[in-house]
């Protein structure tokens, strides 16, 4: 549909609130927006298009169709817009994902004895999630502090249900052992309240609650419990000492500020609880095509859309067009009033300036790191006589045990950094003996044998001339793909780089930035392949190990796997469930259950 036809079509759009979806020629959703009046909003894009902002012109030049979904209210449209952005990740909307893996803590609040665990993904499963934390060390440290202070369980549900004795964590005072009734539900819930306050950063409140509880326990002559709470208070106050007070408002605030240039933005969120800074989270946004106000507004909705703790006050650098609506939505989610401020003076403005300064420093640091990476990539181009600067590199490796359980890996580095969304792993199908070249041939053919939009600037293989020859052969077979290829092989006296048409390796300084980057990429491909291979090996070993359990032969093994669908299912089944499997009896079911519990115990040590 051309632009006049789309414009004419929008005349038929309803005037209700709703969400509109702009689509490209290939029917891909490239922008999602919400409107109070769908017809007016979408038609506004076509009015005065030549005088509109460059980014809107760019977006409109790609739009080939516009669809809409009607909602009852504008607030419903806001919520739907947010979930559609999350689902489709349209090219011209802001995407919260910043390429880093974030870890969160999950608290299964609906269980009688909730469990706290470390997770990568936040799901809508009724559990409470805290975080995300910017590094796995930070989250592991937090988990350790919580275990030591509050004794909340971290074990899996099957393990919890089948315990007859507390595990090691109880002996080292990291768990109250609810598995064996060493604490009742009410007592456990009290510890849990402390965990929630701690994770929300409300340490002062927590300290007050604990002090009162300690006094009550001492008054009731429960000195052992009072002493336990005293230790909790010490630990909390140690954390409090490390957190600087920066606001006299002494309320819970998240302050958002940014610094950006040319479609790149460093956004920072300073998290303050009762006036103390408890965390500072940076987000790097790239390829932005929207005005800054829209970026911040969209970011905010996605940020809190993910079941995250919402403070009573959010400070942003701009007045948001739909502030009232967003406040209403967040207040509903929180169950208490949430205010969004865009201060012009006073203490909130000072906070905003402070976060902006942090964002600016991170932006400059990131730019100079990027400058260094660009120089390194240019050096690789020069040294290896490439046609292009290798902005996107794909590297391949093979892993197997004498030809068995053979796998291949492909890792992608964009602008010198791992791009994990692009990683692929391959289970070798056509080669069943130790034939590295044959395996490499299969993996590369599966990658380049099909038409792909995301072709790399450089293909890299772990290996020397032989592997490199395979790569060049596959690229030729795939319709003469005009891509540079290299091989990086381990050799005497260090790694060697091979390029096509040259017998000897290219001389590269061992500690040069270019060489270090190539080694980093090769090592990542190796790590990725070996992890997959080990996983398969472990799975196979466990499957065959099933037969080593007293009373389990090939027939019972088959029946167990069939009944529970997988080894994982067998592992997490209770003795009662195991008895239900055709051909099983109580004794053998007990053996299976005991076997997996012992395995888990040994692993947790
Ligand atoms: S099994 Fe260990 S971690 Fe789980 S509840 Fe019992 S003592 Fe705590």
Overall description:
It contains 20 helices and 18 strands. The chain is an alpha+beta fold. Strands 12, 13, 14, 15, 16, 17 and 18 form a seven-stranded mixed β-sheet that branches. The protein has a five-stranded mixed β-sheet with strand order 9-8-7-10-11. Helix 13 (346-384) crosses helix 16 (513-545) and helix 14 (436-448) runs parallel beside helix 15 (465-477). Bound molecules: iron/sulfur cluster. The site of iron/sulfur cluster (SF4) has 14 residues, from helix 6 and helix 7.
Euclidean distance between termini CA atoms: 64 Å
- Under CATH at level 1, the class of the largest domain stands as Alpha Beta
Q: Ligands in the structure?
A: iron/sulfur cluster
Tally of alpha and pi helices: 20
The Rg value, from CA coordinates, equals 29 Å
CATH architecture of the largest domain: 2-Layer Sandwich
Number of strands: 18
- The CATH superfamily of the largest domain turns out to be UvrC, RNAse H endonuclease domain
SS-based structural class?
alpha+beta
The domain count comes to 5
> Percent range for helical residues?
40-55%
Largest sheet: 7 strands, mixed
Named CATH topology of the largest domain = Nucleotidyltransferase, domain 5
